[in-house]
């Protein structure tokens, strides 16, 4: 299967819950009336496009009807496609790999897919011949370190790991020293995400952040916030929370394959000031993609 079809497959649930619902609505409607517009709004909300963004889109749809850009239900799909396309923007935003090492800090609550994403990032960058190191700064669960260790072996990355329960900032510090002395290109730091100790977690992240930028002033070059697409609007709240503790520079939206609520990506892009940089569409090493808005919209709306 080629990359585009794999992406389409990863978005299958959202295609069913969103694109196909729009197609059904269109095929059962003869004209655009208030009832049609209400049902369209419900489809957007169900797909977790978010209240504010849905309102914005619906205002444009109503305006489009007024301006006669939308004349029949059949005009809705192409109109929505171009609306969503313009909300998502066009640019692929890559992490610049420069300086030895480029430091990527990965944050987010438990279970969203941080460690898996780090493994997948390792797989992605390894293909370009970069020397990669992981730092297991989630020291709260032994399993987290073991999981990262397995990924490190699989993608041929170095790993710095301390005992369970040790200071995460110390792991980050050691990893930075090791990465500098071993000429590592990319150092990716895993962190813990226990939300029940919210303020501690945020303090801990700030401390890790301080240590990193003390050792390398431009670092972390990237702070990726991992959000689980299946949690829909909850992901939006997490984004707000984490932005306060760390200078989040990009979002990784995982588990798009497991949800019909993939519309959350539109809400993230249009309501937060943080770009989506990667999307996760499965559990395997290759199931992480740089987020390309154009390709995403094509895959979402493709009717073949
Ligand atoms: N289906 C699917 N599962 C994922 C994806 N990313 C991560 N997972 C799964 O989510 C679970 C939690 O991932 P983990 O990396 O341990 O989360 P962490 O606690 O944030 O480090 C694991 O079972 C992963 O395989 C994804 O894009 N799609
Ligand atoms: Mg983890």
Written account of the structure:
The chain has helices at residues 3-10, 12-28, 34-46, 51-66, 76-88, 114-126, 142-154, 168-181, 198-215, 233-245, 264-271, 293-301, and strands spanning 102-107, 132-137, 158-160, 186-191, 222-228, 250-254, 276-280, 288-290. It is of the alpha/beta class. Helix 1 (3-10) packs across helix 12 (293-301), helix 4 (51-66) packs across helix 5 (76-88) and helix 5 (76-88) runs antiparallel to helix 12 (293-301). It has two domains: 3-88, Up-down Bundle (Four Helix Bundle (Hemerythrin (Met), subunit A)), CATH 1.20.120.140; 102-292, P-loop containing nucleotide triphosphate hydrolases (Rossmann fold). It is 51% helix and 13% strand. The model has no long low-confidence stretch (mean pLDDT 93). The longest helix has 18 residues, at 198-215. The protein has twelve helices and eight strands. The chain has an eight-stranded mixed beta sheet with strand order 3-2-4-1-5-6-7-8, sandwiched between helices. Bound molecules: guanosine-5'-diphosphate (GDP) and magnesium ion (MG). Magnesium ion (MG) binds at residues 114-115, 138, 144, 190.
